[in-house]
Design a protein that fits this description.
Length: 279
């Protein structure tokens, strides 16, 4: 693989970032609190409390993966997908040589498609497997370069470096530049959305998840995924970091056949995110 393109070569949005209402309100809250603390006698403790409360609310939004307070966040496919009877299966943290090839075979047998949110350094370690994912009709999207545990504490420069590096690695390896991004564990802070906007990426979380990185019981994982399952849902599973069943098998490999059969029975079709997000 050649050298990664410089960050300035990454296609950028020409439009300025539209500040979300919650961020605008937060900025106004800070200005009002500081002004009151300076100008109103005895108001300083209240002003400090107001600022602390505001920071707690913003932090809470960042720790809530499906929240849209910090910016746009795709949690379901658009309305048009309902008429098409589409859902999106998203599979995170790979590619994983022990698991991903079996996942691809299962998807082929059932004629369904998935989106793999890949860690770029794992793609570097297993480039042929990444290319096979795309060759077999699936989509690879951006799940950061390293899947850092402190990702949600990064600032604008850290976000830009981590995400743009992943963009370059994935594009160089599989020939397609991602359009969707998912944060590690879905956690983030207010600095993330402007970076995604500049890089032309949409934040995508999920409708429901199976918690299959910590739950080894396939029946319980399946129950979480299938409860009120309907068109437009975005489902989250993991080929990397998957929990193990009592037999030592990655739980995804027991859950996925059950899920694919349920989709068939319900007349639902699993599509990639780029396909499903079409209006």
């Amino acid at each position: 693989m050649g050298k990664s393109a410089p960050m300035s070569s990454v296609p950028a949005s020409k439009e300025s970032w539209p500040w979300p209402p919650a961020i605008r309100a937060s900025a106004a809250w800070h200005v009002a609190a500081i002004g009151a603390g300076v100008l109103v006698p005895g108001a300083l403790p209240w002003a400090i409390g107001a600022i602390v409360l505001n920071h707690a609310l913003i932090t809470g939004a960042g720790l809530t993966p499906r929240s849209s307070l910090l910016g746009p966040n795709v949690t379901r496919l658009p309305e048009a997908a309902a008429a098409r009877r589409e859902v999106a299966i998203t599979i995170d943290d790979g590619p994983e040589p022990e698991v991903t090839p079996q996942v691809l075979d299962l998807l082929d047998v059932h004629g369904q498609r998935a989106t793999f949110f890949c860690i770029a350094e794992r793609v570097l370690a297993h480039p042929e497997l990444a290319r096979e994912i795309v060759a077999r009709g699936h989509s690879i999207q951006n799940h950061t370069a390293q899947h850092r545990h402190n990702f949600s504490f990064l600032g604008p420069r850290g976000f830009a470096a981590e995400i743009a590096r992943a963009q370059d690695i994935l594009a160089d390896t599989v020939g397609q530049r991602p359009t969707c991004f998912r944060a590690p564990a879905g956690l983030r802070n207010p600095f993330l959305e402007p970076v995604l906007h500049r890089l032309g990426l949409s934040l995508v979380s999920w409708t429901r998840r199976g918690f299959d990185t910590r739950e080894g019981d396939a029946a319980k994982v399946m129950a979480r995924l299938s409860h009120n399952l309907q068109a437009r849902d975005i489902l989250l599973l993991h080929d990397g970091n998957a929990a193990r069943t009592a037999k030592g098998q990655p739980v995804l490999l027991e859950v996925l056949p059950l899920l694919l059969e349920r989709l068939r029975a319900d007349g639902l079709r699993a599509v990639t995110l780029p396909e499903g997000l079409k209006a």
